[in-house]
Design brief:
The structure holds two protein chains of two kinds. Chain A is α/β, with parallel strands linked by helices. Chain A is built from twelve helices and ten strands. In chain A, a hairpin with a 2-residue loop joins β4 and β5. In chain A, α5 crosses α6 and α6 packs across α8. Chain B is mostly helical. A two-stranded antiparallel ribbon of chain B has the order 1-2. In chain B, α1 packs across α2, α1 packs across α13 and α4 packs antiparallel against α6. Chain B is globular, with a radius of gyration of 27 Å. In chain B, 39% of the residues are buried. Classes of the chains: A alpha/beta, B mainly alpha.
């Protein structure tokens, strides 16, 4: 994966000069599809999360309108689209983080493993133990690195082998080496990229089925970003990853499936990532991913 | 181009300020500075008179003891008897300090859990509308005159508790309970402010890890707001130490040493006690005013009180600095 990232940066230099690849707007469809094809697809075809006719409202305003998506197990699904298109809202519906917003109202179904998570008898707290989340801004607790990772284990009553689970999670999040012997230091002492990997470690320590990521790399520099991308790639062997991103190259590089949301909370196209970036069905999608719009 | 004076002093621009305006601005500054220094100056004045009058008391007391001033200070700080008005006089601080400790600790036992619980409810559980009514209502408690609390303790709390416990008419228990209730708003209000300042992203992180609301409140928000919560506790302690009317009315005037036997600790509460503050009330109102050391003892007591609360405030400050979280 890191080699892969290298080629991307090289490919950018002739057109983009010294500009950050993330904000580089104008690109050709071929560039993007080149990246998309480097990814091996179809590890499993089982659908883990399925939404049916999902509408989300904030007060009277509709943020998501009749979205149907089938998210496959143990693959990376990217949600892309311009700001305010509802992709973060969609992400937060999956583990009911939207419950915290009073004015938010959800209609339709979000099925996780065949069961609608908005059913009366679903406990959102227990649901979130299966579906973890990593936010845009790294948000470690003002506690030690160790306590950050152990937090989920403790609140979920997974009290046995806490030490071992913490170490394993840090190792999986590719953080253990850098912070070995500093587990007692505050999580806030780490750099932004390390903090985000700490948040990922914290999310995987309890071994959920799904990890939702809301633009996990947008607050990070390109090097930290590429480390997070490598990590996501590895995590998808074991976890189902759903990631919101603003960065087209990132979506092309790391995802198996891509969902394109456009303004109005409408899902315009959902398909294999290669297909989206090589030969999208809709002109609007092509315009968006090549930077002509959005 | 209008507005620019075309005639007169060419060097005078529109954005140059006239001398008079600058002078006026400076006068404002001095007036405001005066306001700021006034309180500081008065505080310094109070501390100065407290010291000089306390020194006068120690000299008088030394004469009574027929010893040196140092003896008098030692006798005051370590003395176990407070007999201010009947000969032979004895001015030992310890029984009064005992009374203050008993009342303060018991009041804190009421106020800290209750205040923290209220703060957690207001900050984490209450809906915005509930909070909008409940918070001001709780703060009304802080506005009730303390003498009202005192009479309430004497007239209602003591007779009620007397049904279950063997209480004196004046006792530490009911005074402590009322004082605890009085300082609940102080604890809840400051703690709630500290908890509300905890960024929402930390709560989101907690919920995202499968924490319940109670987990998030107690394991994320309270630890993150720790410094604010502890300083609310210490301010509440300071307030309890300095509180006068409740103890004067409800706890009586009985200087009594602390019972330190762990199995009989509760007995400290059933009897009448005298705190430093109520002893000062007694000294101030004594008919021998000015004649005997009893009047001047007030200043030594005031100094002791000042030292105790000052130390508490310093501790609060240190804790606040030490545990302040930069989120």
């Amino acid at each position: 994966m890191s080699d892969n990232h290298q080629t991307t940066t090289d490919a950018q230099t002739p057109t983009g000069d010294d500009s950050d690849p993330i904000v580089n707007v104008s690109r050709s469809l071929e560039d993007l599809s080149k990246e998309a094809t480097t990814r091996t697809t179809s590890r499993s075809d089982r659908t883990l999360i399925e939404t049916r006719d999902l509408d989300v409202y904030y007060g009277d305003e509709r943020a998501i309108s009749s979205v149907d998506v089938e998210i496959p197990e143990r693959q990376v699904t990217a949600l892309i689209g311009p700001s305010g298109c509802g992709k973060s809202t969609f992400l937060r519906c999956i583990n009911r983080m939207n419950d915290r917003i009073d004015v938010c109202r959800v209609e339709g179904q979000v099925e996780f493993d065949g069961k609608n998570v908005y059913d009366e008898d679903v406990d959102p707290v227990a649901l979130r133990r299966e579906i973890g989340i990593v936010f845009q801004q790294p948000n470690p607790f003002p506690k030690s690195i160790y306590d950050n990772v152990a937090f989920g284990l403790r609140v979920q009553g997974l009290d046995d082998e806490v030490d071992e689970r913490v170490h394993r999670a840090l190792e999986r999040a590719a953080l253990l080496e850098e912070i070995e012997g500093r587990l007692d230091e505050s999580g806030l002492e780490l750099s932004g990229g390390q903090q985000q990997r700490l948040c990922i470690a914290r999310a995987i320590a309890t071994d959920p089925d799904v990890i939702l990521m809301d633009e996990p790399a947008s607050a990070l520099d390109p090097i930290a970003t590429s480390r997070i991308e490598d990590l996501i790639d590895e995590l998808s062997e074991e976890y189902t990853v759903v990631i919101v991103t603003h960065n087209m190259q990132q979506a092309a590089r790391i995802s198996d499936k891509t969902a394109v949301f456009l303004t109005g909370g409408e899902l315009v196209e959902f398909d294999d990532t290669d297909k989206i970036f090589e030969n999208p069905e809709h002109q609007r999608v092509e315009d968006y991913i090549t930077g002509k719009f959005g | 181009m209008e507005g620019i004076p075309m005639s007169g002093d060419v060097s005078q621009r529109e954005w140059q300020r006239p001398e008079a305006k600058v002078r006026k601005e400076r006068i404002y500054e001095y007036v405001l500075l005066g306001c700021a220094t006034l309180t500081v100056a008065i505080t310094i004045g109070i501390i100065f008179t407290l010291f000089s009058d306390a020194v006068y008391f120690f000299q008088e007391y030394a004469g009574l003891l027929e010893g040196s001033t140092a003896d008098a200070v030692r006798e005051f700080v370590a003395g176990k008897e407070w007999v201010p008005t009947i000969e032979p006089y004895s001015y030992g601080l310890l029984p009064l300090l005992s009374g203050t400790i008993v009342i303060t600790v018991a009041a804190a036992a009421v106020a800290l859990p209750c205040g923290l619980g209220a703060a957690i409810y207001l900050s984490e559980y209450a809906r915005p509308t509930t909070r909008a009514y409940l918070k001001p209502a709780l703060e009304v408690l802080a506005g009730v005159p303390t003498i009202v609390y005192g009479y309430f303790a004497l007239a209602y709390v003591t007779p009620f508790l007397d049904r279950f416990l063997d209480l004196s008419t004046f006792n530490a228990l009911s005074a402590s309970i009322m004082m605890g209730i009085m300082i609940i708003p102080m604890v809840s209000s400051i703690s709630e402010d500290a908890m509300s300042a905890v960024p929402d992203s930390l709560r989101a992180a907690g919920y995202g890890l499968g924490a319940t609301k109670f987990d998030v409140s107690t394991r994320v928000v309270v630890p993150a707001a720790f410094s604010g919560i502890v300083s609310s506790f210490i301010l509440a302690f300071s307030r309890a130490i300095g509180e006068t009317m409740i103890v004067t009315v409800a706890a009586g005037q009985n200087p009594k040493m602390l019972i330190l036997d762990p199995t009989r600790l509760d007995e400290n509460l059933y009897d009448s006690v005298q705190t430093i503050t109520s002893a000062m009330v007694q000294a101030a109102g004594s008919d021998t005013a000015g004649g005997t050391p009893v009047f001047w003892s007030m200043f030594a007591l005031g100094l002791a009180l000042f030292v105790v609360t000052f130390v508490m405030n310093v501790i609060a400050d240190v804790i606040q600095r030490r545990y302040r979280e930069a989120y």
